[in-house]
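Follow-up to my earlier ticket, as requested here are the two runs.
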Amino acid sequence: EYQSMMAELLDFDVCNVPTYDGAQAAGTSLRMASRITGRKKALLAGNMNPDRLRVIQTYLDPVMSVEIIGWDRDSGLLDLEDLGSRLAPDVAAVYFENPSYLGAIEDQGEKTARMAHEAGALMVVFVDPSSLGVIQPPSRYGADIACGDIQPLGIHMNYGGGVGGFICTKSDREYVEEYPSRLFGIAPTSGKEWGFGDVAWERTSFANRETAKEFVGTHAALWGIAAAVYLASMGPKGMIDLGKVIMQRSLYARKVIGEIPGVSTSTPSAVCFKEFVVDLTKTGRKVREINGKLLSRGIFGGKDLSEDFPELGQSALFCITEKITMRDIDRLVEVLGDILR
């Protein structure tokens, strides 16, 4: 049931049993692309999650090289001119996140897919599943593989847990054969009834052990059950309502925070989902200092971007989910304004 609902949400034919987490799912997706195309290079968006980038680089290092694609500071979107200059016969996949780590919704998916496919590469897209009630799934704009993390699907905060990666593709054999994780499908039983069973068990790391193409575990599978309960409870309308609430509150937060003197929101022309960048450079304060004062008032400030994105100056990444109320946002603005006065 989990696999069926995830495949419906992503508008793909196949979805796997959860892998360790979203970063591992992204790494596996890119290694799948390498095996499918026979190529050894991945082009990754420069506006992606830096922690996820490090995991992917580690995971790909034995078999693939990585190049970073530039992105536009104003729109927050991929620099397609830079992408075009990097596409070559050795590129297996183009990878980007939608929404990006900095919150921008990537609306150039069709162009990116066309460029990748014309160069003989696949397109891999990492998505937030809670956005898919309001944003088209990657399959609709040409993605060959979609991946992500199921944490937003009703899974509570946890110290190092509460995560599980998903990978979705079409049902073509060349894709199915490259999943190292378990897949379940409908199969006839001895009594001519229908049951559920492993699909192509022999391709999994569990069956191949030391000769497997790569390895996955099953410890995240129970989070898949939790995500399935959440999806069944929400239903299609609930997922649409969820996406609308998040976008409306994010838009409101971005507007009112940007009205604080000395504060502005970066990527001004971007349409955002959950995350957005707040530029605090003109306040003359460091993000670390501001966050310390916010914490003393019971508020977690935005993530300091000065190390991973130094080109953004003293900027912070704020995130608004369905758990954040309008009252929470108003209090943040009041306290932040007080700190900066």
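Run two:
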Amino acid sequence: MFDLKTIHYNDQGLIPAVVQDMDSKRVLMVAWMNEESLMITLREKRTCFWSRSRKCLWRKGETSGHVQHVVSIEADCDEDTLLIQVHKDGPACHMGTDSCFDQHLVYEEGKEGY
């Protein structure tokens, strides 16, 4: 168990949160949290993030109904990234896909780069 006082937020007061499906272990998304959104997430047991573009709190599923129910939250060894395991009520991505990680980069033998 980690101590909330030891979390390392960046210069903007944010910490990245990797959201993972508890059952499949698939990474669903990466979002940002500030101290307030982390506290809301802990209290409500539903993910709440900080929207860097809109500069406001963002409760996942508030408008779409695709809520993420928090099962566990872990900090990495440097306490500067969070792993949030969830049970989800629908797609994680705003594009309607199960995960935000559906863009595949394929390396072709004999070609430079990807």
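The only thing I checked on run two: The radius of gyration is 15 Å. Let me know what else you need.
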